[in-house]
Amino acid sequence: MLKETHNSLSIPRILDANLNRAREGLRIIEEWCRFGLENSQLADNCKQMRQEIARWHTSELRIARDTPNDPGTALTHPQEETRSSIDHLLQANLCRIQEALRVLEEYGKLYQPQMGIAFKNMRYQVYSLESNLVKQTRYEKYKKSPLYLVTSPDDNILSIVEAALQGGLTLVQYRDKNSEDTIQLEIAQKLCQLCHKYDALFIMNDRADIALSVNADGVHLGQQDISIALARQIVGPNRIIGRSTTNPQEMAKAIAEGADYIGVGPVYATPTKPDKPAVGLDYVNYAKENSPIPWVAIGGIDLNNLNDVISAGAQQVAVVRAIMKADNPTKATQELLAKLSLK
């Protein structure tokens, strides 16, 4: 019961509205976990929180509701009327849940002391849910991207990448070994925004600090780069981390250290990695038989040899020149995706 001895229904109405808001938001997140990600654990987490909220949603609070006289029902904002992507939808509803839980925590203290404590604890549970959900959504999107563009320096890099995105590309890595940090940061920011505009993932090569700064979806590390553990400390728990490998030993080490995916190659000789001898299709076949995590074949792959790489077991391939040096990046992307769709 309310500590104050007055007949005001203001507090019960606030609690009722935000209990509804939190439950509705959680149900939206739960449906994506269940049907979009097919992740029973995340879906169950949402369900358990919904049931806990329902326990607090007593008849005393429900009967305080006065929808016809609620001035808030007519309030809206243009940003609430559209959702540009699944990521946007999920983020909007996670914010909605968190805001509702904060209201329940504060006003709940006036209703029942335990209510404030309960919703404070739940708010932290939702923060953890958000982190897991963002990572899982990125990871699932990564696994469903058969074609991975790794960029090479080019004055027209933005227009080339956008043309590839228009051709259906959903995964881009920005790689530039020579430019100054300020230039890399500027280009990375623009590429990240461009990729997210097309609902594609953006991965930063080598530089975990830049990945974090521009809100990239992940970082890709070479054998000579920082450890996966250090990269994880820098970019946080919800970004993807990949590691290049050239042999079974490097593969095993990357997996043991917690890589989310590995690069397998260079399959063929490539000017991108002049110091790396080609590992051939045998290593591709080895990855097919032995890697428990996603892997991408990379190195000198183009339309002419793509079928051989697919036959060796690759379901995801990375290309550089096949798109970056193509006369028509959109068409090149479409042709590569068409072949990969037949695998």
Automatic annotation (TrEMBL):
4-amino-2-methyl-5-(diphosphooxymethyl)pyrimidine binds at residues 173-177, 205, 244, 273. Pathway: Cofactor biosynthesis; thiamine diphosphate biosynthesis; thiamine phosphate from 4-amino-2-methyl-5-diphosphomethylpyrimidine and 4-methyl-5-(2-phosphoethyl)-thiazole: step 1/1. Residues 1-125 are annotated as: Unknown. Its cofactor is Mg(2+). It is an enzyme of class 2 (transferase). Residues 147-323 form the Thiamine phosphate synthase/TenI domain. Residues 13-131 form the ThiD2 domain. GO terms for biological process: thiamine biosynthetic process; thiamine diphosphate biosynthetic process. Residues 126-343 are annotated as: Thiamine-phosphate synthase. The keyword Membrane does not apply. It comes from the Bacteria. One of its GO terms (cellular component) is cytoplasm. HAMAP family: TMP_synthase (MF_00097), TMP_synthase_cyanobact (MF_01327). This is Thiamine-phosphate synthase. It comes from Rippkaea orientalis (strain PCC 8801 / RF-1) (Cyanothece sp. (strain PCC 8801)).
